[in-house]
Amino acid sequence: MIGSIDHKVPAWRAPLLVGLGLLVLAALTMFDAFRVMSGVGPGVGPSAGMKLIALLLAVLGAAHLVQALRLARLAAVRSSGEKTNLRSLAWVLGGLVLQIAALSVSAGFILSSTILFTATACGFGRSLKSWGPLYGLVLSTVVYLFFTKALSLSLPMGPLEQLLG
Amino acid sequence: METLSLLADGIWIALQPGNLLFAGIGVLLGTLVGILPGISPSLTVALLLPVTFKLDPTGSIIMFAGIYFGGMYGSSTTAILINTPGEAASIATAIEGYKMALSGRAGPALATAAIGSFVAGTIATICLALLAPTIVDLAVQFGPWDYFALMVVAFVTVSATFGDSVLRGLTSLTLGLFLGLVGIDKLTGQARLTFDVPALMDGISITTLAVGLFAMGEALYVASRFRGGAEKIEKVSGSLWMSKSDWKASWKPWLRGTLLGFPIGALPAGGAEVPTLLSYTLERRLAKNPEHFGKGAIEGVAGPEAANNASATGTLVPLLALGLPTSATAAMMLAGFQQYGLVPGPLLFTTNPEMVWGLIASFLVGNLMLLVLNLPLVGLWVKLLAIPQAWLYAGILVFAAMGTLAANPSTVELTMLVVFGLAGYLMRCWDYPVAPMIVGLILGPMAESQYRRALQVSLGDYAIFFKHPASATLLAIAACALLAPLVFKGLRRFGGSDE
Q1: What is the spatial distance between Cα A117 and Cα A109, in angstroms, rounded to a whole number?
Q2: Chain B residues with CB inside 8 Å of A103's CB?
């Protein structure tokens, strides 16, 4: 099937990835802790907490690696129940990335949210030609007006928002 | 007696027309969002946080309480009607409630859930009002070492004792503690883990993390499991009301559920799933006709629902009296307080008594309002369940993005939201609990400052944590709570169930 991966994955994969991630974070924290100057006076400075967390992260990372090793030796298989629908996942994530991109070129809240809404709807099986874009536009406009006018919060401005005043 | 007069003042505050309106709007909004499939009460609170940004503190916290109760009610409705418990605490409700709905008894199931929540919520709120001042009296004598030890207990119970894997719980907690380090150190003004990104100087926002982990994570997870099918909703047919025998079968489970839920919630043990499942098991054992269980026994809805609500109210005891959030929802409530620069804890009882008591009283009012508003509106709420997934999740994501942008209009913040969303997705895929991470982010910096304060007082002597009886006892409890699951179930439990 296109866009899906096999749902039987080796059980050691998740703990291996998590373990490596934790070790990277531990190294990062430890590295930064040595940059921070320790305070003066009695007690501990700002770097003590960082070193403690770095140590914890490293221990947990190592525990994950040990677990991964043990699972690999058992050749255990982890069944996630259902296959991952990569196509849907890509639509939703793509929508989020597009929204960030649209906001960074000052497209405004309404347009960028319409993009996000449409992409998510596509991820859930609606076609681009469905009512999705229109619903998204209406919803984003209503949300924008409600939160900026009724609750006087500020949301990113763009051409459409300037039209609405 | 002083407590009662304070509570009476609180009820007076909660009954002011403006505050009553806030409570009502909160209940309606909370139900509206909470009833959407897959949305837990904590997510409801997180998503609706921006609505309260510009209100006055008392009104907004009261509205918050309404949102919370509305969200819980909505969550149990979804559990009963479409067998989609939004949170672990509704699983027990879904077992029997859905079976009742299948056999055309959705009305009584919803009614026993609502009335049971009302009964439990009311009793638990009164217990909260009686218990909180006692704890506050105790807490004013606490030194920084005691607070630190208490937070260590909360860390351990939230992440290790009640999860199904100590390793995964601790990992989630430690990631939260790690995120709590980011930003400017309050005592020395030095930037930690910011890597010269200005947006990180203020630290990681609790709301961004919670909305990312819950809302984004959930949306991505559902998308990754999307098969194109629609969920089947059970029609609410037959009488909406409970018959005489339903009442007879329900009232004892309500009370027993309350008795189980409140103390477990009030201990810093986190999570309502323990008391709800305990209540379910208990009702099953006590039932006259145990063979009804699994086929739609009303006791199996009444007990767990009462336990759920009572334990939710119970978590407010450590939150209000000590400033300790022990569940994801309590963490979101704390975020609500923090947006006004208010710190829950013993001090708040003396500096803002009208607010604390107004809030406690508004739980009573909110519970009543829930009953009055929601039972007749069941038909309307059920229609919301028919919203197709595509529009539902698209709307949730737009709303989540809106909340983040309203709090901090920057694309960096939005990027963090997406990163947390991905983390939440992976954590769901790999069975890591999310709540410890949020508790870690909130309590981590607090624990660190208490720790440093204690060491300043003791001039750097670490023995101070063991010299004071309270902190020494609490640290011993924490050590036991961490080691108990390992000792009782063997070391295998450390790695979780999939070994």
Answers
A1: 12
A2: 405, 411, 414
What pTM did the predictor assign?
A: 0.85
Buried b (16+ CB within 10 A) or exposed e, B278-299: bbbebbbeebeeeebbeebbbb
Cα B92 from Cα B309, distance rounded (Å): 13
CB-based contacts of A108, cutoff 8 Å, min separation 6:
A156, A157, A158, A159, A160, A161
Interface test with B, best of A38, A111, A116, A120 (most B CBs within 10 A): A120
A9 by DSSP, 3-state: which? strand
Tokens, residue B231:
């969920």
Amino acid at B273: E
CA-to-CA distance for B92 and B124, rounded, in angstroms?
20
What's the rounded mean pLDDT across residues B176-193?
87
What pLDDT does A1 receive?
Answer: 37
Identify which of B349, B350, B253, B262 has the alpha carbon closest to the alpha carbon of residue B302: B253
The confidence band for B421, taking pLDDT boundaries of 50, 70 and 90, is: very high
CA distance, residue A141 to nearest chain B CA (Å): 11
* A103-123 pLDDT tens trace: 888 888 899 999 999 999 988
Residue by residue, DSSP assigns B312-378 as HHHTHHHHHHH----SHHHHHHHHHHHTTT---SHHHHHHSHHHHHHHHHHHHHHHHHHHHHHHHHH
- For residue range B394-418, what is the model confidence (pLDDT) as tens digits? 888 888 888 888 878 888 889 999 9
Q: Which is more confident, B310 or B87?
A: B310
3-class DSSP assignment, residue B486: helix
Q: DSSP string spanning B183-198?
A: EE-TTT--EES-TT-G
Separation CA B406–CA B53 (nearest Å): 9
Residue type, A20: L
d(CA B196, CA B201): 8
Which structural domain, as residue segments, surrounds residue B427? 2-495
Q: Tell me how far apart the alpha carbons of residues B66 and B43 are, in angstroms, rounded to a whole number.
A: 14
d(CA A109, CA A144): 7
Integer Cα distance of A159 and B40 in angstroms: 36
Question: Taking CB atoms and an 8 Å limit, are B226 and A44 in contact across chains?
Answer: no
Quickly list H helices, B83-182: 91-102, 106-139, 144-156, 166-181
Q: Which of B188, B220, B429 sits opposite A39 (nearest CB)?
A: B188
Residue B307's identity, in one-letter code, is A
Number of domains in chain B: 1
